[in-house]
Amino acid sequence: MKIAPRTNYREDVVGRANVEDTPELLAYYDELDTLKTGALWTVANKIEPWFPQSSSVPVLWRYNDLRDHVLRSIDLVSPEKAGRRVVYLNNPGRQDVAAAVGWLYSGLQAMNPGELASAHNHSASALRFIMEGSGAYTIVNGHKMTLGANDFVLTPNGTWHEHGVSEDGSSCIWQDGLDIPLVNALEANFYTVHPDLNQAVTYAVDDSTATWAGTGLMPGDDKWEHGYSPLLKYEWAPTYEALCRYARVTDGSPFDGVLMNYINPKTGGPVMQTIGASMQMLRPGEHTKAHRHTGSFIYQVAKGKGFSIINGQRFDWQERDIFCVPSWMFHEHANASQSEDACLFCFNDLPVMKSLGLYREEALKENDGHQPV
Amino acid sequence: MKIAPRTNYREDVVGRANVEDTPELLAYYDELDTLKTGALWTVANKIEPWFPQSSSVPVLWRYNDLRDHVLRSIDLVSPEKAGRRVVYLNNPGRQDVAAAVGWLYSGLQAMNPGELASAHNHSASALRFIMEGSGAYTIVNGHKMTLGANDFVLTPNGTWHEHGVSEDGSSCIWQDGLDIPLVNALEANFYTVHPDLNQAVTYAVDDSTATWAGTGLMPGDDKWEHGYSPLLKYEWAPTYEALCRYARVTDGSPFDGVLMNYINPKTGGPVMQTIGASMQMLRPGEHTKAHRHTGSFIYQVAKGKGFSIINGQRFDWQERDIFCVPSWMFHEHANASQSEDACLFCFNDLPVMKSLGLYREEALKENDGHQPV
Amino acid sequence: MKIAPRTNYREDVVGRANVEDTPELLAYYDELDTLKTGALWTVANKIEPWFPQSSSVPVLWRYNDLRDHVLRSIDLVSPEKAGRRVVYLNNPGRQDVAAAVGWLYSGLQAMNPGELASAHNHSASALRFIMEGSGAYTIVNGHKMTLGANDFVLTPNGTWHEHGVSEDGSSCIWQDGLDIPLVNALEANFYTVHPDLNQAVTYAVDDSTATWAGTGLMPGDDKWEHGYSPLLKYEWAPTYEALCRYARVTDGSPFDGVLMNYINPKTGGPVMQTIGASMQMLRPGEHTKAHRHTGSFIYQVAKGKGFSIINGQRFDWQERDIFCVPSWMFHEHANASQSEDACLFCFNDLPVMKSLGLYREEALKENDGHQPV
Amino acid sequence: MKIAPRTNYREDVVGRANVEDTPELLAYYDELDTLKTGALWTVANKIEPWFPQSSSVPVLWRYNDLRDHVLRSIDLVSPEKAGRRVVYLNNPGRQDVAAAVGWLYSGLQAMNPGELASAHNHSASALRFIMEGSGAYTIVNGHKMTLGANDFVLTPNGTWHEHGVSEDGSSCIWQDGLDIPLVNALEANFYTVHPDLNQAVTYAVDDSTATWAGTGLMPGDDKWEHGYSPLLKYEWAPTYEALCRYARVTDGSPFDGVLMNYINPKTGGPVMQTIGASMQMLRPGEHTKAHRHTGSFIYQVAKGKGFSIINGQRFDWQERDIFCVPSWMFHEHANASQSEDACLFCFNDLPVMKSLGLYREEALKENDGHQPV
């Protein structure tokens, strides 16, 4: 896509470019074009914005709207033809890269009992968050993990992985999350189909949690040297229990309530090098204050109902709904129940922001921290 | 930019999407559109490529072609109007983001004696590599650095910085390098004009090199805690001397000859969190073998003449020429002189590739490692 | 203590000192003495041994022998006079520094219901492992932790800490472990009595486990910056459960059975900078192979009965017995039961060995890895 | 050495042990003895001192006193018999471990032209600081380094190393520094004589500095993974130049003047895991203020003359004199010249203090920071 010729993005501010076109300059610009160059002052204000202005828009995807379409895909296309039956979230501002927000991809995948997708690997990092159904499992580099609702599982960059549902299970739906758009944009994505189409299970089933989910404990003979977590599955029951225990001893964050990050137990850092994840609890009646920060965020409602105000727009959500918060947009969350807690699963590109030195955060100062809607 | 409707990117390969359109599916796709969603199998093969296919093209910018245009900018626009007089390198594949290659911006800036640009800061990281002229200087957070040809200076993300040329100097030209396109793409760029338009020099001139350029030594009372190097200027004379000394004791790399990375002396890591840099020497007559890797690279010829073969295309270069190597393209370098060494300055996004776990490298196996041209 | 004059430690081996005394040399040695110097060759073979020869001896302390004496201390001395009623383990080879083995101190402390020791802090790092009784608690920097049998609690270097037993508890006995001898030897120990003699509890009781013992989770608003773990208590129930789960999916170590290290969840590293700890399970009938390594180790039998062979000597143990393994002595462990597992708690100075680059390990090659007794 | 029986180290301070002997207690203590145990309150105040009380004493070793004795060793013993001809510094408080101060060993070694000691390795880390003579060299793991006065060279733990003087050199004297006492105390020392008695030189002479002494540069193809610096020699000329440059832009430290640490260029950290080193300049007439800190320090006067006040005692020094500062003793330094700078080389165990979390520092507050003498 070529820049519209002679759009100069002028700003009448000291320290900013403000050059008016002249015949001489227009001729000069034409010459520069022929040399595969341009005059910085014609684009400077465009490429040096005062603050991030995300091309993504806030979106809420209601599960009630999507569920039937997702299940219908099972009938519409075969796994052999489609690879995977997935309805992906297509942010109106990011359709060119098929992103749900920023550089994050997300989709809802459905699978019938007895089905097993073929194994592949790619440079993109991936995660799944189970929404419904029984018998789902994922195999990552020979480690098989059984999955239930609200379980969170990693399929990190470069690992062989495949998803299936056991014969005695039910139709399953889960949310996929990947950094495909980012890795494509960074021109670093590789894709390989497993030579045998499926991999062998070479470890005891659920060995990853049996080995790495101990509280404050790590196997003595560990030799893990990957950049991602050896704990590949984070189960819902202990996660919710941890949140409840933490909620009893903390005031929580004014912006996020009681939030815990899923971590790599080897390092205390994020679960993968490009994608972080968290589970947060909004206590009964809690309405957090607004802040904004760099980074792109995708939420799924794991429990309860409420609403979020994102960039001044209110989005009401209930269990299984998904919504996104683009970079540098103010957002605040509210639990609509006075008696039950609400829980939000979130994945994001915070590890990218932080390892590149680009994280910045700001609280809303006006109106006691609440956005007018 | 919207995906052309119903472009299905089909591939007839096991494990890839290969779904033909049917009236029922087309209707289904239309319904998904209204829900801000899509069917993954219609885009899967597009967003999961087999290997990186850069949108950048290899380009050589000849200094002989550019120099007059750069100097002419001094007469054409005033610093007050233009901010900076810069001719930027506009890769034909990356004009939408004004990048020289990948997500890296580069431009040639000119300044007359006695001029001083206004101070600003931004989240993008920047560097300069001095091409010609005397009296140039840069001020970074109160540290003033005097600059000569082939000196390399950092203006890291978030620092106040400004460039000038002293009254008794001559017209100067240097190459700017920034990650503006990347930081914009990551929606994390902030820009601020210094409230006083210019900052005070609050340290002894060239204190950064006096403090941090000691060989194997570090100040005892150091409290540096930034993500970027406290050594902000890397002078040409000691750099070239270090290369010559290293050349005497190493065989060098088959792909790069005698290459040294500029480092942050606090950590041994890259100079900034998003941009790495190196200087490499091709010994008289040396012709390296071809390899390819992820990451985008911009070279300036600091000394000598020769050629590079990039993606099968030969580019002849001499001192001050600039060329780029896009991600995952094979490249090899040759020194055209049998008696003099040649030196290539390079900056790149390797720190991004490495901190995100996306670096991959491959040697050309055929033809004794040399590309047919 | 002065070296016995003119002991020359001669060895008739090439590369070792082997100088016989002569009248001229003896006179020379006397002159060197007056200058606060000596001739290296008179001590070289002594100070450069071929391999570590620990001054500690292996010892087993039977709880049956010690328990009455420990309880008797409660009647013999008052907390006011004694500070703490502790019977410390006094290795015959380390009585000069009151160490149980190497540079590690250990003792058994008794306390009656309603008692509370005064608060202090010191540069030494400390831990407790609860042996019997109910109602014990520890307060560390305002965090109060309630304790039961086989719970493991940290009181890291520099923290205010105090131990007590609640009014409604019973007489308690626990094992203390500290690096007091090491920190004294390094001439870096400071000791302070709390100005108020006791500290306030400023957090919710057991907030440390509520916050940090989540499996694969970390609080989102964490600002911890100490060198030691924010998780200060490791409870027995989840520890044993983790061992049992891990045992189901691992072959274990040939030398240690199923061993897990207690870790700092912020880093995946040891719980404190100078002391590491582990819990290991010997499966029914398991008899490990012998190896030796640098570092000093103190074990307490948390569950079951069996024996260990240390440096060729067999030590039979049962629940609550304590034994030590000095540096570089071969050791192997055996569970005497064919039906029940046995568990060994251990603390050691491995973090010192590893951070100073001094860890070395060797398997016994002879006799299928078992020491003759 | 056994603790004198029934020495109770009583202190009449709240929070400290203060138990008087009774016949019942004495009988109890005897019983504890038989169980290889003791009563903590009889030793608590001894093993938990209020602050570090070093067993080392401050000592100044005058080179004028030592030089003849060192050279005489060449005639008195052969290299074959003695291994090395070394006069070691024997701190009156540390003769039992042959330490110069704390857990650091130091000695002056002499060697004649054409001599070459046999190669060995040990777990202790070592360094040399050249005092006089020409032609000295050291070989470390195949890397040969040529040495001149005030050059500083590493022979890290576990490396094969040997020292020699070339045929065309002169008699050489250098200072050795090692952590032998520490590694012995930690029961982790291993010693091996090289199977061929001498090792081959397998790299270009002085390749270490040619590769690693570049200012702000690191070889691009580096694979170094040891815990110690790949830069094994730090030459005097660039060290002094770096100090002079730094002195022009810094106020220096009130306690140390212009001090720079020798660093590992791979990490910015200390040169070895157990021993740090620095060179500091006292400007003409400079008299620093007193502070104290944990850690043991050995200084050699590399240039100039002056005095230091250590623990209230004045020590006058000139070039080549050596002195030590024990842990937690106040010390201040003064340059006696009003026109020439003075330089102090120092090595110490700060890396141990810091990696174990034991570093503490305090300025003298009284008397404007100067000790009364």
UniProtKB/TrEMBL annotation, chains A, B, C, D:
Q: Does the keyword Oxidoreductase apply?
A: yes
Cite a single GO MF annotation: dioxygenase activity
State a single Pfam family of this protein: Cupin_2
Q: Check the UniProt entry and state the signal peptide residues, or none.
A: none
Keyword set, alphabetical order? Dioxygenase, Oxidoreductase
Chain ranges of the Cupin type-2 domain = 108-173, 279-346
Q: What protein name applies here?
A: Gentisate 1,2-dioxygenase
Q: Which organism is it from?
A: Pusillimonas noertemannii
Which taxonomic lineage is given here?
Answer: Bacteria, Pseudomonadati, Pseudomonadota, Betaproteobacteria, Burkholderiales
